[in-house]
Write a structure and sequence with these properties.
177 residues, 10 strands, seven-stranded antiparallel β-sheet, three-stranded antiparallel β-sheet, Immunoglobulin-like
């Protein structure tokens, strides 16, 4: 009679020490969202290639992001220092603190300035952000959510380009990365 009692006691102890198996397990987890400020872009200075003589043959006038102006063929044109003077375009961009952004500049063949029916093309746009410190199309907003950048480009003049005041517009876009 002792054997059945021992077996019964062992079985009771085994059942008491067994673990339960669950087919599923649930937890509560986190969720969130971050709403960023809208990016704003303000022009500080418009792009202007300054005053120059009528070219004696086709020539390009380059205006760098550092506001330096030079000609691809100095013998064919004289770059003057009289008003209006050359100025690269400058902009201020604002948005969410410490965010990165990209600049989209006009593509070649898309910007023309004119004086009546007379025209000149502007090509090879380039940007230089204060935050990156080099020419490129990306910037980083500071702890206040602000950065600035300058834009340079190349003006294409034809042989004997007619004199006059040439004007036009172009678009620049900034987007969060």
């Amino acid at each position: 009679m002792k054997a059945p009692i021992i077996i019964f006691t062992v079985l009771i102890m085994m059942v008491g020490f067994s673990t339960t198996v669950e087919a599923q397990h649930s937890i509560n987890t986190s969720a969130g969202a971050n709403i960023v400020r809208a990016l704003t872009l303000a022009e500080t200075t418009p792009l202007h290639f300054g005053s120059m003589s009528i070219p004696t043959s086709a020539v390009n006038v380059v205006l760098t992001t550092a506001n330096e102006r030079y000609s691809s063929s100095p013998a064919n044109i004289t770059l003057l220092s009289q008003f209006p003077v050359s100025e690269n375009a400058t902009y201020t961009v604002a948005g969410s603190e410490a965010a990165t952004y990209a600049i989209t500049l006009p593509s070649n063949g898309s910007v023309t300035i004119s004086n009546g029916s007379k025209q000149m093309d502007i090509v090879d746009f380039v940007a230089h952000t204060a935050s990156a410190g080099v020419d490129g199309n990306a910037g980083h907003l500071d702890a206040s959510g602000v950065d600035s950048f300058s834009v340079g480009a190349t003006l294409k003049l034809e042989n004997e380009q007619p004199f006059g005041n040439y004007t036009g517009t172009f678009g620049i876009t900034v987007n969060y990365n």
